[in-house]
User: Fold this.
Amino acid sequence: MSSDSASSFIAKSTIKAPDMEHRRKINFNIGKYNNVVVQGKSQFSNLMLARERAKNAKWRAIENLDINLENFEKLITERGAKVIWADTAEQALEEVGKICEAKNCRTLVKSKSMVTEEIHLNHYLEQKGIESVETDLGEYIQQLDNEPPYHIVTPAMHKSKEDVAKLFAEKLGTSPNLTPEQLTLVARQKLREKYTAAEIGVTGANFIIADIGAVAVTENEGNGRLSCAWPKTHIVIAGIEKVIPSLTDLNLFWPLLATFGTGQKITVYNTIISGPRQAGETDGPEEMYVILLDNGRTNLLANPVTREALYCIRCGACLNACPVYKNIGGHSYETAYSGPIGSVITPHLKGLKEYKHLSYASSLCGNCTEVCPVKINLHELLLENRHEAVLEGDSTLSERVAWKMWKQASLHRSMMNMGNGKLKNKVVNSVFKGWTAHHGTLDFSQKTFNEMWKEKHKKE
Assistant:
């Protein structure tokens, strides 16, 4: 299975990397992001201190994860919500299915949520004959095109306005010459009809607030609020790592998420949901369920090194900074979470043996670590994944032999000095065909530095 996933990744990335039109669209959209993120950062008098404080807050949250989650459960349950613990994606889907069956659900509206992409919720509901409608504009575009999200924050980043106009014309019968504003109004009209028809609304959670027992949802279109307020039943599906210790932490995390996610100083809609509609309230769902999903997250938690990956607030900044992501695109990864953070966490969520190749899809330039708002050492965690794969015996025989030979040569100067540059070039370039297939041939110096140093001092 590992070789199948790796082969598919290599095949897709090989096709996408030389695609100049793809690169033009991505560079255009990421370029716009780079221009505005500077403005967002200007709101922080000391950005490095803000990032350090955010990392410390997430450290406290994850180090006390059990206590925080139990406190969240206790408080939100007291206000009438029902908390469900799901160890796996299958368990989470089964619970959603039970709720849909109990409510005789035929139409479900869903705000943007990467965790629902992780468990393939739309596909599950489709099999049960339930219409699941994406209400985020980017996700709606991707759903119309039968594609998964391309990016954690901007799902349709790889599409131009012309691409979207053509898609709407094919799927919705609109004019192929509509402007972005007109396309948005078309989507708005279609989706408003779904909100009023839906029996259930599903959202994710950007943050789980431990000290008040609530979830925080951040969005720019208002579709998240409509998805949880209009239908009679609201289901929240959230990874257990989304917890933060206190409500007061939001005054740090909301601006950081907005700035590093989209370049805004603050996102347009920021909502705190602490339960279903209470007595005397005029809107909100009659029932609320919160599904807390593990699905491999405790694998990351168990390792004191990889635990740091659970600090991620899903801003997508590392994707925008990664030279590999910008060349091969989000779909090449074939996972819900692409880019550097996806390469770090996917092997632990879905199996190290099957997805270890993602940890090698990196130049290790460190740009991802540099831009992370909570200062996760992403490039070091990629190395940790590689190390774990070797310890678990998931490396190939040829890989182990090659590194053993390299180690022996590195420890013995006489072996490093053996032969001239031409001989070394011939041996290495014939052995490491995986390198020369996509790179220029290696060209060794005729003499090692050690040999030149000895000659220099011998003459002196």
